[in-house]
Automatic annotation (TrEMBL):
Pfam families: cNMP_binding. This is Cyclic nucleotide-binding domain-containing protein. SUPFAM superfamilies: cAMP-binding domain-like (SSF51206). Gene3D superfamilies: Jelly Rolls. It comes from Flavihumibacter fluminis. Residues 37-120 form the Cyclic nucleotide-binding domain.
Length: 197
């Protein structure tokens, strides 16, 4: 994939902003990534499978969702410049409760659990980086829990647009409605009444 070097450079910039990475650690860490591509609407990881890879999105949009009694609940979106994969399944090496699917044709860099673990154990700066990244992720998850539990539909909608204004162009609206925990009709009404920008 021609964009691998550019993707690794972007990854380095984003990760080193969270925590400084020693040169030898980065050399080892960047060496564990290989390329992978999936077509649109392809399941990358299915519920019941153990997530074997950590992904870095080079191109495309993906969503993680849970399926219960034929009803889907979208829990996360990933897009270029972000990590992807079913993170709890990856870290615990336990069967996933979620699906990860591509919403568009997608290209990734990916590294196996064993490779990531070897880097983490060998390099303190990688271990500290992962710790801080998980702390930020946990903070974001808790904040989102509050939004889902106490915000009105309009507050959820406005918060989403403030946090990720580009998302309306990237993700089908039915999945955004599911992500916000509101029905598609309410989402359409909000889209028509709330001024964007």
């Amino acid at each position: 994939m021609k964009d691998s070097a550019t993707a690794l450079e972007k990854m380095y910039q984003q990760l080193s902003a969270i925590h400084p990475i020693e040169e030898t650690a980065w050399k080892d860490f960047q060496g564990i990534w290989t390329t992978a591509s999936y077509k649109r609407k392809e399941v990358v990881t299915a519920a019941g499978e153990v997530e074997r890879y950590l992904y870095w999105v080079v191109e495309g949009v993906q969503r993680g969702f849970h399926l219960h009694d034929q009803k889907e609940a979208t829990v996360v979106f990933t897009y270029p410049g972000s990590f992807s994969g079913i993170i709890d399944s990856f870290l615990l090496q336990q069967p996933s409760r979620y699906y990860l699917e591509t919403l568009t044709s997608s290209h990734f860099l990916r590294a196996s659990y064993r490779q990531v673990e070897e880097c983490r154990l060998q390099h303190p700066s990688i271990a500290e980086l992962m710790y801080k990244a998980l702390a930020f992720t946990t903070s974001g998850i808790l904040e989102r829990q509050i939004e889902l539990m106490v915000y009105s539909a309009e507050e959820k909608f406005r918060t989403l647009l403030k946090r990720s204004p580009h998302i309306l162009q990237l993700v089908p609206h039915k999945y955004l409605a599911s992500y916000l925990g509101i029905d598609a009709t309410t989402f359409s009404k909000l889209l028509g009444t709330i001024r964007l920008g």
